[in-house]
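Researcher: Here's a chain I'd like modeled. Treat it as a single chain, no partners, no ligands.
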Amino acid sequence: MTGKWILGLAALSLVCTTACSRKGTTAGPQGGDTATSVADTATAAAPDTASGHVTELSTALFKQRVNDYESHPGKWVFKGDKPAVIDFYATWCKPCMMLAPVVESIAAEYGDKVDFYKVDIDREPELARIFKIDAIPLLLFVPKNGEPRPYTGGQDRASVVKMLKSVM
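Model: Modeled as a single isolated chain. Structure tokens:
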């Protein structure tokens, strides 16, 4: 009985340390407000930079390549021609920084079959609000057809590959 209690406590501790909370996030409805703000204008000008096979997405690039939620409020319309994985992260989040090389490694292996993206939620607060992100890292697995599947918290390579194969 004591062994099970200790194992349970260890598992709870692991869960608590593998995700960063995003306190103070205001979650808006899917589709959000279509008014353009100063932050939106700055985001639209963000460059399309790639790190290995993982492309950094600005809000404008997200709307072009993944989902234009303003044109289809409340409805998921995927714009990609192959499945995608989107890593929502922040530079201050240690679990996010531990997950990044895992995603990079998988992108190097599966990059011809799946598009890999990442979104810094501090630089792209509109995307964090639209997806109601309150804990990171969050991997969003996007099948070519159907709804995206979010997974929060640090994941090992085998778990990420298993989730990836479920959307391929």
